[in-house]
Structure to design on (330 residues):
């Protein structure tokens, strides 16, 4: 079979194959039961099969209640296949599909809950973040869609940023947070550990210089050599002073926030091999109202940089937030 030819799987042959296989299986069970009913049995006598000298097989018919349960099962199977999909492309007389049921349930849920979500859509983010009901709804949304990556305490993990601090790679304003949730983020740190960029020793020199920028322990000699290498190796993205560029998603190297750990070996790995990370988009999946609630909840956690936080917007215990995943550091 040519697996590059998808027509092998959508041709009429496979439809008939499934139909025949289903019908033969069910009808075959019924025929087998009839044959067994007509077979001669010798109640109370053995078939002659003996094991371990005294273990014998008796030739007794099935009890009627047991036999009729098999017949009912065969009849039920035929009725089911007539009403529901089970024979190839035949959809059944009811026309039921899993997708159709899902869409119907989602439509019902939308009609029931949409007014509740939409009532906050026209409100300012700060007002939504300070509203107890909205905060509770945002918390539930976050638990469902966000906490798996960002951590139950909003502290993040390796490659997943913390949202409790004031370090926001793409900005912590309500507009930037909503932009992140809606469209997602992609962070890329290009590898620098291969020539013509830098060899292994030069990578270590740059790493020690970067460590010195954020107050980490560093070898002074390597730092000086790394300072000379930094302008051509790193400054184009991270800036001449290592302050980063939040508009482009380039992290600040002078603070103490390191997404992939501040250990020397981890930093060497980052510079050598590069990093790539992605925050998936949720805008189309969640819709504007839920994105607005999530934005308010995340902003209300208190870590948004340079923004006044609502007095009643402290994050409930066991929660996290949503922000883009940077390449090497948040």
């Amino acid at each position: 079979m040519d697996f590059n030819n998808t027509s092998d799987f959508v041709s009429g042959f496979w439809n008939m194959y499934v139909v025949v296989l289903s019908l033969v299986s069910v009808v075959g069970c019924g025929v087998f039961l009839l044959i067994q009913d007509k077979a001669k049995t010798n109640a109370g006598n053995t078939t002659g099969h003996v094991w371990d000298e005294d273990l014998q097989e008796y030739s007794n018919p099935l009890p009627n209640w047991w036999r009729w349960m098999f017949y009912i099962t065969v009849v039920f199977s035929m009725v089911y296949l007539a009403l529901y999909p089970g024979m190839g492309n035949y959809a059944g007389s009811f026309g039921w599909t899993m997708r159709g049921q899902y869409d119907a349930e989602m439509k019902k849920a939308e009609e029931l809950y949409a007014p509740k979500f939409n009532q906050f859509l026209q409100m300012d983010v700060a007002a939504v973040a300070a509203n107890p009901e909205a905060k509770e709804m945002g918390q539930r949304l976050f638990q469902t869609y966000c906490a798996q990556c960002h951590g139950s305490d909003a502290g993040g993990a390796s490659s997943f940023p913390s949202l409790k601090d004031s370090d926001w790679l793409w900005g912590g304003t309500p507009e930037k947070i909503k932009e992140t949730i809606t469209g997602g983020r992609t962070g890329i740190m290009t590898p620098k550990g291969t020539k013509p960029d830098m060899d292994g020793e030069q990578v270590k020199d740059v790493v020690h210089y970067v460590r010195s920028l954020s107050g980490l322990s560093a070898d002074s000699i390597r730092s000086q050599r790394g300072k000379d290498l930094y302008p051509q190796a790193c400054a184009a993205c991270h800036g001449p002073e290592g302050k980063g560029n939040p508009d482009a998603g380039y992290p600040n190297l002078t603070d103490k926030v390191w997404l992939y750990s501040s250990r020397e070996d981890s930093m060497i790995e980052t510079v050598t091999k590069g990093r790539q990370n992605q925050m998936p988009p949720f805008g189309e999946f969640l819709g504007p109202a839920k994105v607005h609630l999530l934005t308010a909840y995340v902003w209300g956690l208190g870590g948004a940089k340079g923004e006044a936080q609502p007095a009643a917007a402290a994050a409930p215990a066991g929660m996290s937030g949503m922000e883009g995943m940077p390449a090497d550091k948040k």
About this structure: The longest helix spans residues 12-38.
